[in-house]
TrEMBL record:
Any Pfam family hit: ABC_tran
GO molecular function: ATP binding; ATP hydrolysis activity
Domain spans labelled ABC transporter: 7-242
Protein name listed in UniProt: ABC-type Fe3+/spermidine/putrescine transport system ATPase subunit
Species per Swiss-Prot/TrEMBL record: Mucilaginibacter lappiensis
Keyword hit for Transport: yes
Top-level lineage group: Bacteria
Keywords: ATP-binding, Nucleotide-binding, Transport
InterPro entries named in the record: AAA+_ATPase, ABC_SmlMolc_Importer, ABC_transporter-like_ATP-bd, ABC_transporter-like_CS, P-loop_NTPase
Amino acid sequence: MSDTPFLQALAVSKIYPGKQLSGVKPTNMVVQPGKITAIIGESGSGKSTLLKLLYGLLSPDTGEVQFKGERIWGPEEKLIPGHDAMKMVTQHTDDLNLFAKVWDNVAAMLPATDLAAKQHKTEQVLKQLNMLHMAERRVADLSGGEKQRVAIARAIITRPQVLLLDEPFNQVDTSFREGLQSDIRQIVKETGLTVIMVSHDPAEVLSMADALIVLQNGEIIEHGHPKALYQSPRNLYTAQLLSNCNVLTTTEARLCGVDIKKEHAVIYPEWIKIKVVTPNKGWTVKQVLFKGFYEDLILEQRGVSLRIVNEEPGKYTEGDKVAVRVGKWLEY
Ligand code: ADP
Ligand code: MG
């Protein structure tokens, strides 16, 4: 049947025993094939639990997960937990053989029945992940980010239909992370691999994901395209996850010339423009945070702080008096 969802959760829940209610409440979700779906939420919101339920590493209390219309078996029902068509990589992936070469670590995932195919596929995957030049190096001698690449290579060489990533880039430094992210995007585009990733890094989910799922206290509170969720989040929680935004009360908002009807105004740093004004008026530049080709400025007036993005580095110095103009805001 063509209208059978690729992967879906039907009223799936998993509540851990204990004083505090924790885990995942009854949840419905659909994962589109050949896309990157990102699950974002604060620490403890249930991201890893949901991922394990989707993979079959945990048995749900209620509901079921279906892959191509068939129920996914839990760990009690299967000799090797986890669905055979899926692979999962976490930041604790430590089943690497540290004393073997990168090449052998990756090739070891394939059967030795067809050596030519094994050779060809290993080379192909190492190429896709930009690792061919380190094929002969021992895993023990690699950086954390490089080891994560090996773990991902090992996961995708067996051609899983779904790759699950649980914050695998946490230990990877920023410059390295971007390369890895774009390589994964490229692989998804070329091979039709389906990726479900868990993250709490807004830059990562915004640049990588085709679909975004926001989890709060074990519940999906909204989902959609990353751009849409960023531009007009329905919840304050989502805005705060996706942007380093200013959250102001009604009175504080008025200081920026913003009149709101609801309790909170949310203003993203890039929605505020400033200009220098005659001294002793308006906002004071308290901090200039150099970010390379732009700066973050922290402004202050009457005890209220405001973070803004300044695209002309060097234009303002600490102590400058400025006026602000807010182009857009959200109300919650
Ligand atoms: P996240 O990945 O979003 O940080 P988790 O899914 O790991 O969240 O955990 C969600 C909640 O469930 C947390 O409050 C966590 O402490 C609790 N939890 C996770 N695993 C267990 C477990 N095995 N036993 C009891 N509580 C757990
Ligand atoms: Mg987690």
